[in-house]
Amino acid sequence: MRHSALLLAASLGLALTFQASASDRPDPGKLTTKCLDAAAKKFDVKNDYIQLQPIAAADSGYSIAGVADAGMDGKKNFTCQFDKKGKLANLVQEAK
Questions:
Q1: pLDDT tens digit sequence for 22-79
Q2: Dist CA 7 CA 17 (whole Å)
Q3: How far apart are CA 40 and CA 91, in angstroms?
Q4: Residue 83 near residue 61, CB atoms below 8 Å
Q5: Could you tell me which residues come within 8 angstroms of residue 69 by beta carbon, excluding any fewer than 6 positions away?
Q6: How far apart are the first and last CA of the chain?
Q7: Is 68:76 a contact under the CB 8 Å cutoff?
Q8: Around Cβ 49, how many Cβ atoms within 10 Å?
Q9: Which stretches of 1-85 are DSSP H helices?
């Protein structure tokens, strides 16, 4: 009886740990929206003129690479950097 109670407690703890770690991940749609909005503001273009790559895991959290078509100012390569909780930490324009 004691072994089954310990097994049940361990299983429950494992399930709660797994559930907590899955819910700690930010919503990919929100990351994409934050990146689009920040790039549109930085490069003074509409969201329609921005192309984003898929979200990539990074050491400090997540990143999204993208290109903004700024018309006569040319195409601007950039990367949105997010912390592990999904907060936009930085938008870095890549030098040509």
A1: 557 899 999 999 999 999 999 999 999 999 999 999 889 999 999 999 999 999 999 9
A2: 15
A3: 11
A4: yes
A5: 45, 49, 50, 51, 75
A6: 68
A7: yes
A8: 16
A9: 2-23, 28-43
Evaluate whether 43 touches 76 at the Cβ level (below 8 Å): yes
Token duo for residue 71: 């018309």
Q: Are 66 and 89 in contact (CB under 8 A)?
A: no
Question: How far apart are alpha carbons 37 and 2 in whole angstroms?
Answer: 56
* Whole-model pTM over 0.90: no
Distance CA(50)–CA(37), nearest Å, equals 10
Nearest to 77 by CA among 51, 48, 44: 51
